[in-house]
């Protein structure tokens, strides 16, 4: 294994080679793009209409006809039986194409502020539409999604019920809102930990309770995976470095900066087709040196059901992921964190307690 301290020094050197003007210009362009993004705050509707939008979103989510080959749906990469994640290291889209990123669980989208591993989208309604036109995912041409939906007679009643006031004006924005409504409706925060947080003293075993103490204390997991709040999100919504696969960008940051498209669908297509661009992490969005190779902190809810781990799926098991997190947390704090065999076992037992019990019911189209 490469020396992580050496990697960190290399990463700093890579950033230092970029001129101040290069970074300043790129950062301004990135921030301007983000600042100009419109708001998609869901508007209040009656319960019948909201339920119709959720039903439409669920139908869209499971419909493989909405891909270039007719074989890939949203559920292909976000399997409800796997807490809406993917067992592959990198998801496989149309024509057997594999991307560069591991598909994260979608069960916590209602509480998330940034979407995709690099946080390039802040609006769920927009984020859910990007995979349809990504050539590595569902592969439709721009504008083809609405054409596909309108070509299916069985969608007419669903569209009318979900957007009775829109008529023929229904477009992709409405489809995105319906998909977002469905994802926000998914059951969440119903784990053994939530029962414990609500006062059920029997919800966690003695080993899991000990693991919670390790999580919040010695292992320092809660410094990034926050366990406060009601319900706790188990993420700080931030972006952090773990030194995962830095080799893809070593010595090439200045060159890659010149090749970066602006944030948005085009960036998403590039990220999924090029491992070197994907390795830039949050930097690809902000162009800030501090964000080089930093990735979004995922929620640890349902973590036991969502292997493999990390943004590229390079860590196969939960045990290995815990070991890697502890290792890099030790580097961050400048001192080793040495868990005993018992403490490691307790921590893993606690992470099992973050699994929701109801999401499998959402597995049927």
TrEMBL record:
Binds 2 heme groups. One of its GO terms (molecular function) is cytochrome-c peroxidase activity. Its main location: periplasm. It comes from the Bacteria. Keywords: Heme, Iron, Metal-binding, Oxidoreductase, Periplasm, Signal. It is found in: Periplasm. One of its GO terms (cellular component) is periplasmic space. Residues 52-187, 206-355 form the Cytochrome c domain. Gene3D superfamilies: Cytochrome c-like domain (1.10.760.10). This is Cytochrome c family protein. Its cofactor is heme. Heme c 2 binds at residues 221, 224-225. Binds 2 heme groups per subunit. Heme c 1 binds at residues 74, 77-78. The keyword NADP does not apply. It comes from Lysobacter silvisoli. The keyword Signal applies.
